[in-house]
Amino acid sequence: MKGGVAVRYFVLLILLCSLGFTFQAQTPPAKNVPIEVPVRIFGGNQFVETLRLGDFEVSEDGRPQKVEALYLIEKGQVVREEALPETNFRPQTARVFYLFFQMTEYFAKIEEAIDYLFKDVLQPGDSVTLITPLKPYSLSPQALKTKTRESLAKEMNSLLRKDIQKGAGEYRSLLNELKRLVRTIAGPGVARVQDPEAGDVDALSAEGTSSLEFMLTHYKEAVQKLEALRLVEPKKFVSFADLLRAGGGQKFVFFFYQREFRPEINGNILNQLMMANQDREDIRAGLAELFQFYNRDISFDLNKISRPFADCGANFNFIFIDNTAKYQYGVTMREQSEDVFRIFNQIIRVTGGMMDSSQNPGAGFKKAADNAGKYYLLYYTPTNAQKDGSFRTISVRVKDKDNSVSHRLGYFAR
Predict the structure, then answer these.
(1) What integer is the mean pLDDT of 320-325?
(2) Residue 71: what pLDDT?
(3) What pTM does this model have?
(4) Which of 3, 29, 54, 412 is such that its CA lies 20 to 30 A from the CA of 242?
(5) Are 237 and 305 spatial neighbours (Cβ–Cβ below 8 Å)?
(6) Residue/partner pairs of 308-311 with CB below 8 Å, 24 or more apart
(7) Percent of the chain with pLDDT over 70
(8) What's the Cα-to-Cα distance from 247 to each of 25, 93, 184, 244, 354, rounded to whole Å?
(9) How far is the C-alpha of 414 from the C-alpha of 409, rounded, in Å?
């Protein structure tokens, strides 16, 4: 994908501390501290809950490790435990949920996700942080004791609807402006077609947009502004992962992302404009620059982004809302979600989370929440006690069983 994901919402999270959201800083780990590994085992679509301590094999950087303790966790509670003699682990099972919404329009099905969160997921002692396009909101465990689940769900749905509609206004405005520009550049026959969402493109003529050179410059500037709203900044991802690592308990992240499209000038129209302006080098240069802009590739190091998420121990889930673009004559709506998939699929892989892609974010959240709700916690003490800052890769398998195993990829030896 070209461009980057709109992660200004991650910037909002980084502001949590200044808004009163504090995290308990971890003390430096003691020498040879045990490593905690949440593990989910599935036989087909069913979670396998009958495994014992001796069924697991764990290795670190290819070296076998002794599994010292096992805890089966369901909805934040230990339902079964097994440990070697003289081990005394005390897992933190309190849960913190982070719900991010990167969306340009509100979907009614989101209410189903929020309702399910309060009705079937949250347990006493859990806390929730909601990140909308405008700002973060924190729901403390105390709120669950003082208000009904129904009233809290209704309040959160109202906040989310309002913030999405208001917070994505600049993004939608730029999209509409790009559509108007594209139709105007395409020619008078196309420009007369009106978009019920974008308004009348003829209003653009009042600004002197008969100049193709001016319109191309205006179009490029608008595209750059749109890209700036969804720019990937790896440092912001890493900062978010560091904040998660500093917090205690079990952390669950659900990222709701709406499929994005960028209005582009139809390729055939671009070619026609190139042919029609053979004697205008300035215009031909501007059109050629658009070709390059459309096909540019933004590269980034996925490991530098994803490994801190594995290290922080959070379970990351990606809810992809697979909406479709409306057809408009003369406008090519180019999907720009590939970079989002590259980044978040990698984060999912290294944290043991899951992705759901559909037009129903409510059903996607239910599936992800159910998947995250039950897991094993395994503990082992690394045979390599050196704290050299390197990334240690963890591998977990189940002996003599053909099951699907998901877990975090590893940790940084600090």
Answers:
(1) 86
(2) 97
(3) 0.83
(4) 3
(5) yes
(6) 308/237, 308/238, 308/241, 308/242, 308/245, 308/412, 309/237, 309/241, 309/244, 309/347, 309/350, 309/351, 310/350, 310/351, 310/408, 310/409, 310/410, 310/411, 311/241, 311/245, 311/391, 311/410, 311/411, 311/412
(7) 84
(8) 7, 12, 52, 5, 22
(9) 16
